[in-house]
Amino acid sequence: LEHNTKITYLDRYHTEDVHEVFRKAFSADVYITSTNALTISGKLFNVDRNGNRVAAMIYGPKKVIVLAGINKIVKDDEAAIKRIQTMASPANCLRLKQDTPCTKTGFCVDCRSDARLCASHVVQDYCHIEDRIHVIIMMKEAGY
Known about the structure:
Elements: H1 18-25, E1 30-34, E2 37-39, E3 44-48, H2 52-58, E4 63-69, E5 73-74, H3 77-95, H4 101-105, E6 120-124, E7 133-138
Parallel strand pairs: 1-4, 2-5, 4-7
Antiparallel strand pairs: 2-3, 3-6
């Protein structure tokens, strides 16, 4: 970055209008996120409640940086889905204090709860825009 570069940080946790932050993220130069699972072949598996995160990963921001702990790396598609159902979704529901069946069972039961966080399922295995998506694997466990 140049010395006089202006950076605007959009933080959904420190705003009165979270949906406005979601919309502004689509025009961001850089979007930083994580992933629910990353296969050895390079596919990103993600689930969202609102779809804002997966939508921004697919389209909008000029660059997408995906930070992934080594705990997110899985063998294949089946393992990615299992990781989401038994780890990511229940843990995120607990973190966000959602009253869903998975917070009690520890695994997804494909509920129809209004508190459900796993409404949009997205698998990304290719981006036609060269150098748009960058996956950084952190050599430690991070996130759910």
